[in-house]
Design brief:
about 525 residues
């Protein structure tokens, strides 16, 4: 068989493998989202609304380095392993010799910073839970590069298995340990964080096995690992993820400080408890507003190695095609979730949380979901920039957005009266900053890759989302089952609107059938 005949077959096999891998990771991500929803619903009841708010303050700070380590390490290790060919094991083990001491450094630095962050939040009770999360960060810093090696070898099913196992154990650990601690008269927040530490410790052996971390490199390998080059490549990836994750958490971190200070002069009987409860309400809004971003992460994990490979091969047409297809899928999927959430925000919160929290957070969620929807698309843009080797540009965009966010939060949230007004101001300031960041990232991707979200797709999705909001405001709201049925009906309406506007066609249905096969 000639080389020309083999190329289409190889391309088809690669596409089929990527498609199946994408579906596997997407399933794992959906499972992660669902277990996360269950986890948060349990925590708000198991450790109480004020304990849930205190835990939200802890996780807001801990999630920044955790997510930076996970995303940055996966991308850096994936790139190194995928580009090293037959010497992938030698590259993996050499890179791990850098990640282990880095893990110890990051965990120690976070533990030392814990008292200062607790003081900024105005509640020193969260200091010890923060120290426990430093242990979690250390373990994640070793676990994540192993997942990166699996991703670089395109073992997407194994990666999906790890995601599912980690999500399940984390849910059991957080809620179960929190409940046990509280029943014994101990701090429920401390119990939940301790459960998280035990959970990730249990997943580590599975990652060791799947990544084949203990396997020796192939005999006769002459691979030379450039530590400096690897760190130079890792740093921009970490910076771009740092900016992205600070954007995700800066609102609740500043809000916690604003609420603590405002509660002292608000006249409430227990200022600390009241502030924690309102932080918990905002966290419930964040939970649903983050859903589009969490779902679209599955697209970025498949898109990154494919765009990076096309770019390395100087295949401009391939880069443009991958970016446009990925962005189109992202805006359609993200629009579905955003549309349903903004159409019925209060009932959506009420699916998992008490009615009081749903009533307090409805207006905030409607605003925040729009901003976070743009943030989800910005995540795809940032992945493209990283794939094209323009991490520094992505980091610059994120840094600018953080500054805009902080200014907006101090402008719209800090001066507001204690309670719901501060939550709404926070949502407004956050959405403004995310809109600015999305526009900047989209412009950069379109200029560098030649394409991003198709204009017609964006217009049709915006129309469908607006239609859902108009319909949602006129639907009577009932219990949880009725809300779920309403959400499903709105989802069908969204898809129907895209079919009628010819955004979804027979070609899309054919693609789905091909992936299924």
């Amino acid at each position: 068989m000639s080389t020309e005949e083999k190329q289409p077959e190889n391309a088809a096999a690669e596409g089929q493998n990527a498609g199946r891998g994408g579906i596997a990771i997407l399933f794992a991500k959906v499972f992660f989202i669902l277990t996360g929803l269950v986890q948060q619903a349990l925590l708000s009841r198991v450790i109480g609304q004020d304990g849930y708010g205190a835990l939200s303050r802890v996780l807001a700070a801990a999630n920044i380095p955790n997510n930076v380590v996970v995303s940055g390490s996966i991308q850096a290790m994936s790139r190194t392993v995928s580009q090293s060919g037959k010497d992938d094991q030698a590259a993996f083990r050499a890179a791990m010799r850098l990640h282990v001491p880095l893990a110890l450094f990051l965990g120690g630095a976070f533990a030392m910073a814990a008292p200062f962050y607790a003081s900024f939040q105005g509640t020193r009770e969260i200091t010890l839970p923060l120290v426990v999360m430093a242990v979690v960060l250390t373990i994640y810093s070793v676990y994540a590069p192993m997942v990166g090696a699996i991703n670089g070898r395109r073992k997407f099913l194994q990666q999906a298995t790890l995601d599912i196992t980690a999500a399940t154990l984390r849910t059991v650990g957080l809620a179960g340990a929190g409940y046990v601690f509280l029943r014994r008269g101990l701090d429920g927040t401390l119990g939940a964080t301790s459960g998280a530490a035990v959970a990730i410790s249990c997943v580590l052996p599975l990652a060791l096995m799947f990544s084949q971390a203990l396997r020796r490199p192939r005999a006769g390998s002459t691979y030379t690992f450039d530590s400096r080059a690897y760190l130079v490549a890792l740093l921009p990836l970490a910076l771009i993820q740092l900016g992205t994750n600070v954007l995700m958490q800066v609102d609740i971190m500043l809000l916690g400080s604003f609420l603590s200070k405002a509660s002292e002069t608000s006249g409430v009987s227990n200022p600390g408890k009241a502030a924690n409860e309102w932080v918990g309400v905002y966290r419930s809004c964040q939970l649903f507003a983050f859903l589009p971003y969490q779902l679209l992460v599955s697209i970025t994990q498949v898109l990154f190695p494919m765009v990076a490979k096309a770019h390395a091969n100087k295949d401009a047409a391939g880069v443009r095609a991958y970016v446009e297809r990925g962005a189109r899928i992202g805006v359609i999927a993200g629009g579905l979730m955003v549309g349903v959430i903004v159409a019925i925000p209060g009932p959506v919160i009420g699916i998992l949380y008490p009615a009081e929290m749903a009533a307090r957070g409805a207006a905030t969620l409607r605003i925040l979901a729009c901003g976070q929807g743009l943030f989800a698309l910005m995540g795809i843009a940032m992945t493209v920039l990283a794939s094209l080797g323009r991490e520094r540009l992505g980091a610059f965009i994120s840094a600018g957005a953080i500054l805009v966010s902080m200014v907006a939060l101090y402008t719209f949230a800090r001066p507001q009266p204690f309670g719901e007004a501060q939550l709404i101001g926070t949502a407004i300031g956050t959405s403004i900053a995310l809109a600015v960041a999305f526009v900047a990232a989209a412009y950069a991707v379109r200029r560098l890759a030649g394409s991003f979200i198709p204009w017609l797709t964006a217009a049709r999705v915006a129309f469908a989302v607006g239609l859902l909001v108009a319909v949602g405001d006129r639907i009577p709201h009932g219990g949880k089952i009725l809300t779920i049925a309403t959400a499903a009906g709105l989802g069908v309406l969204y898809l129907l609107a895209l079919v009628l506007t010819r955004e979804l066609t027979r070609e899309d249905a054919k693609l789905l059938r091909t992936l299924r096969k």
